[in-house]
Amino acid sequence: MTSLQQALGVKFKDITILRQALLHPSITASRLESNQRLEFLGDAVLGCVVAEKLYEERKGLNEGELTLARQNLVSTAALAEIALEQGYDKLLFMSFQEEGYGGRGNVKILADTVEAVIGAVFVDQGYQCAQMVIERLYKTKFAKMETSTILTMDPISSVMNFSKQLGLEPCYKVVKEGVEHAPKFTVHLSLNGHPLGWGTGRSSKDAKYAASQYALKLLESKTKQEIEAIKKPRN
């Protein structure tokens, strides 16, 4: 925990809160003991800080552009990248079974961990310190925050445009799990019966966004012949 505190630039008053941020639900007896509540809080704090940063530094963007920019900066992919940069994949506590399933490389788990750490800082140190930590974690991304990059078309729109080029319509199947006050959504994306990706999130919109990101990465790796094959329905 000492090295993590040094990396964050924070000395915790209650170190158990930081430890909790690294506890994946698979290793705890109760979900209340895992990092999920901290993740929920960290998600809100992160969204607020990034929104404020964009509002102050990108005065030429309208409301829709600000929303898209924030969505890209706090996306699952962006957070997972930060988690790997900070080495959170090595610090996570999870069950052997979850680890065997590739949990340490799971982008959703990595993204959740970043949010949980931010939540832990907020609980222990308050908003200003959490803001400082986010600035530190996002130092590279904020430095490269060119308008052309943060306003790249969102994955859902990109998938829709790609589908139209093939004369097809993407199919998103949504599965809702968990309790009412803390649901978990999983979205499976397919095109003409061909599975392209899946994603999870606290809302169907977040899960759809993650599934579209997954699909775009898969499509980028396909050959022209493989793309053409998608035009043929899969039973």
Going across the biggest sheet, name each strand in turn. 1-2-3
CATH evolutionary superfamily of the largest domain: Ribonuclease III domain
Number of helices: 14
Helix content: 55-70%
Which structural class should the secondary elements be placed in? mainly alpha
Number of domain modules: 2
Which architecture name of the largest domain does CATH use? Orthogonal Bundle
**Strand-residue fraction?**
5-15%
> SSE order, as H and E?
HHHHHHHHHHHHEEEHH
Profile the largest sheet.
3 strands, antiparallel
Q: What fold name stands as the CATH topology of the largest domain?
A: Ribonuclease iii, N-terminal Endonuclease Domain, Chain A
Question: How many whole angstroms does the radius of gyration measure?
Answer: 19 Å
Shape: globular
Overall residue-averaged pLDDT value: 87
Record field, number of beta strands: 3
Which residues sit in consecutive blocks of at least 5 with pLDDT less than 50? none
What is the top-level CATH class of the largest domain? Mainly Alpha
Secondary-structure topology with pairs:
Layout: H1 2-8, H2 15-21, H3 36-57, H4 63-73, H5 76-86, H6 88-91, H7 96-100, H8 107-125, H9 127-137, H10 139-143, H11 147-150, H12 155-165, E1 170-177, E2 184-191, E3 194-201, H13 204-220, H14 224-229
Antiparallel strand pairs: 1-2, 2-3
Helix pairs in contact: 2-8, 3-4, 3-8, 3-9, 5-8, 8-9, 12-13
